[in-house]
Design brief:
Blueprint lengths: L1 H7 L8 E3 L2 E4 L1 H13 L2 H8 L3 H14 L5 E4 L7 E4 L1 H20 L3 H7 L13
Antiparallel strand pairs: 1-2, 3-4
């Protein structure tokens, strides 16, 4: 039973990089960069992630203001429509962030995790309500 619980212990490690009080990079922004790369458009990337147009643009704006150069470049619309692309710096930042996520994921295993897993319940007990 304990071995089964040890396997089932979910651990979520979320890495956020701050620029002052702004989150310069986190899981959502990394996913957005992936989507912009795939879709070629900020608005299409937002739609694919279920984000509003405004929210998507705000996230891109924060990223572009927090790094040494923009992570996303846009081209104006027109007869052929506009678009967006992840810059070389954006590609580098995204790759480094994904590497950091992978390294952090390795922390979620080992003796401390196993000891915690052996002591946690599979679900909370019912609340004590008067």
């Amino acid at each position: 039973m304990l071995a089964a619980m040890a396997e089932a212990l979910p651990i979520k490690i979320k890495i956020q990089l701050f620029c002052g009080s702004e989150i310069a990079m986190g899981p959502g922004k990394a996913d957005l960069l992936d989507a912009i790369r795939r879709e070629g458009s900020i608005s299409a990337a937002g739609r694919s992630l279920g984000m509003s147009y405004r929210r998507t643009w705000l996230l891109v704006d924060v990223m572009n203001r927090c790094w040494s150069a923009p992570l996303v470049e846009t081209s104006a619309g027109g007869a052929h429509g506009g678009g967006a692309r992840v810059t070389a710096l954006g590609e580098e930042i995204l790759d480094l962030y994904r590497q950091l996520q992978a390294q952090a994921g390795q922390v979620a295993s080992g003796p401390a995790r196993d000891a915690l897993a052996s002591r946690i319940r599979p679900a909370p007990q019912p609340a004590n309500r008067p």
